[in-house]
Amino acid sequence: MKKKPYLSIALAAGLAVSTLGAQAIYAKPAESSQQVQPFNVFDNKVLNNINVENIYNNIEYLSRTPRVAGTEAEHKAIQYVKEQFESYGFETELQEFTFYGYTAPHTVELKVDGYSGEIKPKSFTYGMDGTASGELVYAGLGQASDFNSVDVTGKIALIQRGSISFADKVLNAAANGAAGVIIFNNAAGDLNGTFGAPNDAYVPAVAITQEVGQALVDKLNNGENLTGSINIEGAEGGTRTSYNVIATKAPTNKNKGKDTILAMGAHHDSVPGAPGANDDASGTAMTLELARVMKDLPTNMEMRFITFGAEELGLIGSRYYVSQLSEEEKNRFVGYFNMDMVGSRDAGHLVINTVDGNQNIVSQTAQASSARLNGEPTPIQMGGSSDHVAFYEGGIASGSFIHRPLEPWYHTPEDTIDKISKEKLQDVAEIIGTAVYDIVRPENQGPKAERGKEQKVPHLYFEQEVK
């Protein structure tokens, strides 16, 4: 996407002053209707210092291997991020937290005597190792009442997907003495399921397709006796450790600085098997670069640059971070800018996700920034599923920057450095960098942070409502 370094008079007429009140500076318009207006002068302090090669090179380093939370690979990435922050001169800390981690089994086997077709069983997340063998018994949907009319003691319960959770199906079967469970899909295609949480009461359980499951039910209904065996090996679960990396910059002039905090960040972990170049080495690398750019710029409030662990497991790192903030700290936060998947050549256009779909200081300043840089504001969409959610839940204005629709390589081994677009990286870094600096620059004498999910600031760039 080509940059537009100047805005037309028609657009400039709709622009007034900086988001938080400082006067914008424009060139004197000429008589020609084709005359254009320059950026605000303060934008250039950011634009002239962004180096997209730094972002790209950090993505390349981080995405050499998957960075699953709690693993040695993630810990190496954490140390790398910390060292980069420190090389820029930041005071940096590692915030440790623990969580329940799970590794899927390497071996999942199901054999059924009397069935000659291919089965291809799959495991359930949070299911553990084990073996089971015995007669197959059809137990309907696996609800508690389904076991009133069948005896599954020491046998393998064959259960259809639907009505209740996978975990409840397995626990109901186990409570009635089943040695193992087979759950088959209720629609075409593979069944990729999770139990949602660990439980010592689970018996060995596998998932199969609707086609195979229905074929087994038909055989049982025809009076055939089927016996089966389940073997699951390599699953691991237990308490693991990860870290958030936090770099802090104090106001340039402590005597004149405002007692407020602005943060930006991304998650540094990835899913198993995925190098995570876009998800989310791209956001981590952009956080590093914008921290480098901001380090020597004059700023009037505290800034925090954060990379979070265990985002892929349920925003664990960011929720822990917010949970550790005092009420006084939460009240000082102006907002949080999140960067998640900001560089894929194969994804769609940039959008700003806010949890409730409403405007806040993050979306408003970023929209104003993109209007100055590109001629139109970046659209807002309602969206969660990333670390900005944790800040929203803590009453802090937040937004997440992402390209949608997602790339086809999302959460796959193909999420590699060769799919990264430097042009997209440059575009997002410029939009976020200038938006953030608009808030933290010393000339800005805007209001202090106002705590709450409904936090708003007047949008002074546009007279009309911005969608």
From TrEMBL:
Family matches, as SUPFAM superfamilies: PA domain, Zn-dependent exopeptidases
Database matches in InterPro entries: PA_dom_sf, PA_domain, Peptidase_M28, Peptidase_M28B
Keyword Nucleotide-binding: no
UniProt region (Disordered), positions on chain: 442-467
Ranges of residues in domain PA: 133-216
Peptidase M28 domain boundaries: 244-434
Signal peptide: 1-24
Compositionally biased spans, kind Basic and acidic residues: 448-467
MF terms (GO), sorted A to Z: carboxypeptidase activity
Pfam families found in the cross-reference section: PA (PF02225), Peptidase_M28 (PF04389)
CDD domains per the UniProt record, alphabetical: PA_C5a_like (cd02133)
Lineage of source species: Bacteria, Bacillati, Bacillota, Bacilli, Bacillales
Protein name as catalogued: M28 family peptidase
Keyword annotations of the record: Signal
Keyword Signal: yes
